[in-house]
């Protein structure tokens, strides 16, 4: 039998200055692509985060009114580790985010505010590439982000945004989906991997209920393992992968 051919991943497009990452929850980006974000901000690129929820339903032992503000603080501290200072929360309810007009409008407004060339989101498909089922929040936000990119550039879809002073922005050139089971591109994780570890560790309250393992051991093992596995398709370099949709 012949060995299957492994398709090598392409380097991410580099011709951009501003990126906007749109995900559902605190820690989605830290599990997905913060090593890439650290490398990009080191290069002088601007990256902003928009989160649909505050992750307030994520810890069983904490009521949402306490959990939401705590996870928001941890997310802001986490973003700062990789050079991101702009972090916005859209205020949708954790666990019951609905794909629809309201979500598309909110994300389109964020795209118009930040005017990025690159938009990043998380896996929008039903599974993580096999039998591991994705969450409804991830699916809804990922799909709405893909759609909102076009919405942001069309003044007639959400004319109320223009009335609020948010002029159409049709300058998004790529949407990059982190955590995809069908990646096409990658970023060398080496320069940003240590900061990615520290960034995820800022979500300490969540990590402490997620695993009984030492948080740093767990985080380092998780992020390093994924980066090294991805590197098999990226010239042997640890990598963060993306499925890139061009426009």
UniProtKB/TrEMBL annotation:
Keywords: Zinc. Pfam families: PIG-L (PF02585). Gene3D superfamilies: LmbE-like. InterPro entries: GlcNAc_PI_deacetylase-related, LmbE-like_dom_sf. This is PIG-L deacetylase family protein. It comes from Streptomyces lancefieldiae.
């Amino acid at each position: 039998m012949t060995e299957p051919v492994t398709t090598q991943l392409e380097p991410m497009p580099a011709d951009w200055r501003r990126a906007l990452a749109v995900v559902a929850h605190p820690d989605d980006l830290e599990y997905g692509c913060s090593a890439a974000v650290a490398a990009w901000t080191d290069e002088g690129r601007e990256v902003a985060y928009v989160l649909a929820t505050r992750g307030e339903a994520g810890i069983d032992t904490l009521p949402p009114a306490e959990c939401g503000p705590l996870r928001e603080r941890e997310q802001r501290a986490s973003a700062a580790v990789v050079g991101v200072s702009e972090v916005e929360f859209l205020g949708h309810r954790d666990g019951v985010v609905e794909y629809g007009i309201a979500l598309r409008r909110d994300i389109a407004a964020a795209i118009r505010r930040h005017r990025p060339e690159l938009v990043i989101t998380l896996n929008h498909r039903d599974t993580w590439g096999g039998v591991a089922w994705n969450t409804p929040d991830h699916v809804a936000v990922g799909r709405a982000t893909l759609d909102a990119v076009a919405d942001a550039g069309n003044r007639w879809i959400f004319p109320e945004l223009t009335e609020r002073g948010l002029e159409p922005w049709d300058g998004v050139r790529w949407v990059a989906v982190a955590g995809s089971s069908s990646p096409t591109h990658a970023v060398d994780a080496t320069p940003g991997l240590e900061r990615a570890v520290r960034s995820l560790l800022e979500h300490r309250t969540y990590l402490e209920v997620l695993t009984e393992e030492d948080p740093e051991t767990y985080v380092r093992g998780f992020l390093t393992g994924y980066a090294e596995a991805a590197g098999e398709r990226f010239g042997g370099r640890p990598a963060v992968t993306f499925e890139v949709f061009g426009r």
